[in-house]
Design brief:
Layout: H1 6-16, E1 22-26, E2 39-40, E3 50-51, E4 55-58, E5 68-76, E6 90-94, E7 106-109, E8 113-116, E9 120-123, E10 133-134, E11 145-147, H2 155-163, E12 168-172, E13 177-182, E14 186-187, E15 198-199, H3 202-212, E16 218-223, H4 227-237, E17 242-246, H5 257-263, E18 267-270, E19 275-276, E20 282-286, E21 289-294, H6 298-316, E22 323-324, E23 326-331, E24 342-352, E25 355-360, H7 369-373, E26 377-381, E27 393-398, E28 404-405
Parallel strand pairs: 5-6, 13-16, 13-17, 14-15, 17-21, 19-24, 23-25
Antiparallel strand pairs: 1-12, 2-11, 3-10, 4-6, 4-7, 5-9, 8-9, 18-20, 20-21, 22-28, 23-27, 24-25, 24-26, 26-27
Helix pairs in contact: 1-6, 3-6, 4-5
The structure holds adenosine monophosphate (AMP) and magnesium ion (MG).
Length: 412
């Protein structure tokens, strides 16, 4: 049976999916969505030269001798328009954000001055031309592209959208995602504890992973290892845009996912990937719907989600950046590795003077969910590697956070 590399499998997934269509959303509801349009500035910002400080607008050439005394001819508050042109020896009291008067070429902050009687101020510090002035259009120019499609809407982006007066914007529609677990041994969260059963954790861990991307998934429950029951559940799942099936994708005689999916007309693009944990991972399409067969082992299921489902969902959501952020770290210990599969090791990160270090979270069995729960990231051991010695540099894919990047950020 053919094993794809992680990179080839990721590429296959990304080539098989595209961004969904656009829909309008109010600015108040836009956080976490993805812009589906180009946004341009609707005016120069600031609209004129303004003061960056509370202080005095003045002519810098008047400060040849320090201290200097200047006559205050006007008081300009934010929202006012100046009415006077400054002559030599004159200044205007000015507030942050207020327009600069004609004749002035600098601002001095109030802390560097002393008020004197009769509208006179003593300036205790010389300033260069342009000091503490925010220039017309330095923030954005009228007509300039300020945001491009594929941009994740963060609080900063919302601020820019409000600046250009966009009360409503076009964002990409989000895919609808369903999650199905399979296995006779599984016990539902709402069922009484049976010591002979295995709690269904995958549905919920996957739910959390989907929610972390900003999508509310639908949980379809547990299908028993029975071809008819599985077919019924899979059909329901294929009413959604993306179906995640956990378990039953391996080669055991009761692993019915493969024949049942194929009987439903799925065009499967891969069934195996050369990775550890997680090699029995499948991906295919049924018309426009996409289906992932994730391994039953809890850690494998989560790692396969990170490597394949995250890029797929983010591409469908319209994100320009599809992959989790990776950083470089030094391993604090040796890592054994047989060449062959790309290995993902759950690690804790620590910041040290020379950069980050990575330390295994403990036993790395594919059922050891606690090792995943504790992890900051996944250290990637390339497939051709013969093992790592303490101090070697590895790429670590961060498991948390909202910052993503264009590519996987690791080599195999
Ligand atoms: P499978 O891929 O179906 O062969 O399952 C591999 C292992 O993962 C078995 O030990 C299963 O009991 C376990 N497993 C399968 N599905 C789940 C699930 N939804 N939650 C927790 N463990 C599971
Ligand atoms: Mg099973």
């Amino acid at each position: 049976m053919e094993y794809l590399s992680v990179a080839a499998a990721q590429q296959c997934v990304l080539e098989s999916v595209a961004a969904f269509g656009a829909e309008p959303v109010k600015l108040e509801q836009s956080l976490g969505r993805v812009l589906a349009e180009e946004v341009r500035a609707n005016r120069d910002q600031p609209p004129y030269d303004i003061s960056a400080m509370d202080g005095y607008a003045l002519r810098s050439t008047d400060l040849a001798g320090i201290p200097a005394t200047l006559e205050i001819v006007e008081d300009i508050k934010a929202g006012d328009m100046p009415t006077k042109t400054l002559a030599s020896g004159q200044c205007a009291r000015i507030m942050t954000g207020a327009p600069m008067p004609q004749g002035a070429d600098a601002v001095i902050r109030v802390e560097d001055t002393e008020a004197k009687p009769n509208n006179v101020v003593q300036i205790n510090q010389a300033v260069k031309p342009g000091n503490d002035i925010r220039r017309l259009g330095e923030n954005m120019r009228n007509g300039e592209v300020v945001l491009t499609p594929g941009t994740a809407i963060t609080p900063g982006v919302i601020g820019v959208l409000a600046t250009v007066k966009r009360a409503q914007v076009q964002v990409y529609r989000r895919p609808r995602v369903a999650i199905l677990s399979t296995g006779n041994e599984l016990e539902g969260l709402d069922e009484p504890v049976d010591p002979n059963k295995i709690p269904n954790s995958n549905s919920y861990a996957l739910m959390g992973q989907v929610q972390a991307l900003g999508i509310e998934p639908v949980l379809l429950g547990i299908a028993r290892d029975d071809p008819d029951e599985l077919a019924r559940y899979l059909k329901r799942g294929l009413e959604y845009d993306v179906l995640l099936v956990s378990g039953g994708t391996s080669v055991g005689v009761h692993d019915y996912v493969r024949p049942t999916i194929e009987a439903l007309g799925a065009q499967m693009l891969f069934w195996r990937v050369a990775m550890k944990p997680g090699h029995p991972v499948a991906f295919g399409k049924v018309g426009e719907k996409i289906i992932f067969g994730l391994p039953g082992n809890p850690v494998s299921s989560m790692v396969c989600f990170e490597e394949f489902v995250v890029p797929a969902l983010r591409r469908m959501m319209g994100h320009a950046r599809t992959h989790r952020r990776t950083i470089e770290a030094r391993m604090t210990h040796n890592v054994k590795h047989q060449p062959g599969r790309t290995e993902f090791i759950r690690v804790l990160l620590a910041k040290e003077p020379g950069g980050y270090t990575a330390t295994s979270t403990g036993a790395q069995g594919s059922g050891m969910l606690l090792s995943m729960a504790r992890a900051d990231g996944l250290a990637v051991v390339p497939g051709d590697c013969n093992g790592l010695t303490a101090g070697s540099t590895v790429a670590v894919q961060l498991l948390d956070g909202t910052v993503f990047q264009d590519d996987a950020g690791f080599k195999e």
